């Protein structure tokens, strides 16, 4: 995988924002754009949770690197046609 993509937003939403009109002494509810965390970050976080729930030893630095490697593999798997073989990226 030559290009790392974040997979887009994991939980896209448009949270409400409040705008205050001082002159009218009112509050208006407006919508804002907020993409939240990326799908890559979500996958990496899930991989870290799984790793911490086991007895696998290693430094936190290695765990973080492995988590993002797993996340990148998961994103790559989403792009491949079902059943097609694909190369596994090397750990950086």
Describe the structure.
- The chain has 92 residues and is an alpha+beta fold.
- It has a domain at 36-79.
- The chain is 37% helix and 13% strand.
- It is built from two helices and two strands.
- It has helices spanning 39-52, 60-79, and strands at 16-21, 26-31.
- Strands 1-2 form a two-stranded antiparallel sheet.
- A hairpin with a 4-residue loop joins strand 1 and strand 2.
- Helix 1 crosses helix 2.
- The longest helix is centred in the last third of the chain and has 20 residues, at 60-79.
- The radius of gyration is 20 Å and the shape is elongated.
- The chain starts with 15 loop residues before the first strand and ends in a 13-residue tail after the last helix.
Write the layout of secondary structure elements.
Layout: E1 16-21, E2 26-31, H1 39-52, H2 60-79
Count of extended strands: 2
Distance between the termini: 12 Å
How does the overall form come out from the CA principal axes? elongated
Q: Whole-number average pLDDT?
A: 78
Secondary-structure element string: EEHH
List unreliable stretches of 5+ residues.
none
The computed structural class is alpha+beta
Percentage of residues in DSSP E strands: 5-15%
Number of helices: 2
Describe the largest sheet: 2 strands, antiparallel
Helix content: 25-40%
């Amino acid at each position: 995988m030559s290009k790392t993509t974040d997979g887009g937003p994991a939980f896209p939403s448009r949270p409400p924002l409040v705008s205050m009109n001082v002159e009218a002494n009112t509050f208006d509810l407006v919508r804002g754009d907020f993409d939240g965390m990326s799908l890559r970050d979500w996958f990496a976080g899930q991989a870290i949770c799984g790793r911490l729930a086991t007895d696998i030893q290693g430094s936190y630095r290695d765990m973080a690197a492995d988590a993002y490697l797993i996340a990148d593999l998961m994103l790559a798997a989403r792009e491949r046609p079902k059943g097609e073989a694909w190369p596994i990226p090397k750990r950086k």
